[in-house]
Design a protein that fits this description.
467 residues, 2 domains, globular, single chain, mainly alpha, de novo design (two linked rop proteins)
């Protein structure tokens, strides 16, 4: 398999199976949030709701692009951490997956709505931080801290936004809709008015679709990390992209950077500017006369990926610094060329996307009852009303959809659970929340990152010593 020896092949298969298992757990762990509202408001039968949600999760992954997936891959700078020993990559991936699965499965078992996003990102950060304890000059380079800050901010704000906006939506409901039925606890076996039922169907579908777009892409990112770590040559570059087109993009970046006045740049920016020109020349020389990455020797493809990462990353940092002496149109052109260049190394094969889609879709259809019960019955002191369910779903679908559009990973669990909590507070204030459940969810939220960081880092150091 890809020229690997038997032991490495077995380890690679184990890692792929674990990534699929994580996404399977993600399906019944996170998607339970989406179906809780339609089930507890009698808007849809449980079996129908779960199948409906599973199919839309599958569709979300298939048509959601890979922006969030690449955000996950870029948290760990693979160009820095991947070395000549493939077993080091195996140790990294095994530790990451096992720590994420242990925490996700444990919180599901106890019926606690917990964020798979926090779990996987904590595990990734644990791997990066553990490099401080290994020989070699990794320093701060073992984690992409700029990306980690953006991701951490999104995960921190998502429950606060979900809680606040749900209160506003409930307020609007009360102002616009005077039908008291939708504010009361659903009567078992009795369906809600058709218009609110349709709204719940649509919003449940949107949450499921956007969950696939966002959380499903995290599985795609995980699988790409595995493939790049173990088989850097085979999966470093997209062989379907025309290399001469990419070379033209790099040449445009180089020309624009040459045009810029370097005297106004900081010392750090000048170093990056020089690196961009050097890496550009190196890339253009190596791909001269070649039209596909398949024509490049396997041993050189990962080095070309490194060149492209340095070119695009440094260019983005110089643009962000605000000292680049180019016109607005030239900066716009530079950003466009950077985006086009990234297509050569920010990609996922179709079989990876399909595999993750299937795992997430199937996971949605099993094991959902534990989380649904917590979301539907234990957040508020009363079962959620039709209006509360609709408010939470509207907030979650909009929040997750916006995050997916921006390529930022957010927590479906936190968006929806906090939305339900906000809708409960909007009805009768904070006294309408079950303090025990809220404390448990909040404690889990606070502990997820430190626990997964310590667990994954410890496992990585252990596996690195053994393999």
């Amino acid at each position: 398999m890809f020229g690997l020896d038997t032991t490495l092949t077995v380890f690679l298969i184990i890692c792929i199976v674990l990534a699929c298992f994580f996404e399977f757990i993600n399906g019944f762990h996170d998607t339970a949030n989406a179906v809780a509202t339609v089930i507890y408001t009698n808007s849809m039968k449980p079996t129908v709701a779960v199948i409906y949600s599973g199919l839309l999760n599958f569709t979300g992954v298939m048509f959601g692009g890979i922006a969030v997936a690449m955000g996950i891959v870029n948290l760990l700078p693979m160009d820095v951490l991947v070395d000549s020993n493939p077993y080091h990559g195996i140790a990294m991936i095994l530790a990451l997956l096992l720590s994420a699965i242990i925490w996700n499965f444990g919180t599901w078992y106890f019926g606690i709505p917990s964020s798979s996003s926090h779990t996987i990102i904590g595990s990734i950060l644990g791997i990066g931080l553990s490099f401080y304890f290994l020989p070699g000059d990794y320093g701060l380079s073992a984690v992409n801290w700029d990306k980690a800050k953006d991701t951490g901010l999104a995960l921190l704000l998502s429950p606060l936004i979900g809680f606040s906006v749900a209160i506003i939506v409930m307020f609007l409901f009360k102002r616009i809709v005077k039908n008291e039925t939708i504010y009361k606890e659903p009567i078992p076996g009795k369906k809600p008015p058709i218009w609110i039922r349709m709204m719940l169907w649509v919003t449940c579908g949107l949450v499921s679709f956007f969950h696939g777009q966002n959380d499903g892409q995290k599985g795609v990112g995980l699988l790409m990390m595995i493939l790049i770590a173990v088989l850097p040559g085979q999966f470093s570059l997209d062989t379907s992209i025309n290399l001469q087109g990419s070379s033209a993009n790099v040449r445009q970046i180089e020309n624009l950077m040459v045009k810029a006045d370097t005297t106004v740049l900081s010392a750090k920016e000048k170093k990056m500017h020089t690196d961009i020109l050097n890496f550009s020349k190196d890339f253009e020389t190596k791909v001269a006369g070649k039209f596909s990455a398949s024509e490049i020797p396997l041993t050189e493809r990962f080095h070309l990926r490194k060149d492209l990462i340095k070119i695009t990353k440094h260019s983005e940092k110089i643009i962000a610094g605000g000292n680049l002496s180019l016109s607005l149109n030239e900066i716009k052109k530079l950003k466009s060329e950077i985006k086009a260049t990234k297509k050569l190394f920010e990609y996922a094969p179709n079989w990876v996307v399909i595999m993750i889609s299937v795992c997430l879709g199937l996971g949605t259809m099993v094991g959902w009852k534990r989380i649904v019960k917590t979301v539907g019955e234990k957040i508020g002191k009363q079962h959620m009303s039709y209006a509360q369910g609709a408010s939470a779903e509207i907030v979650a679908s909009l929040g997750i959809g916006l995050a997916s559009w921006k390529g930022v990973p957010v927590s479906t669990t936190h968006m929806l659970s906090s939305g339900i909590a906000g809708s409960m507070v909007a009805k009768k204030g904070l006294k309408n929340l079950q303090k025990g459940t809220i404390k448990t969810i909040a404690l889990t939220w606070l502990l997820t990152l430190p626990v997964t960081i310590i667990l994954s880092g410890s496992l990585f150091l252990l596996f690195r010593a053994l393999l």
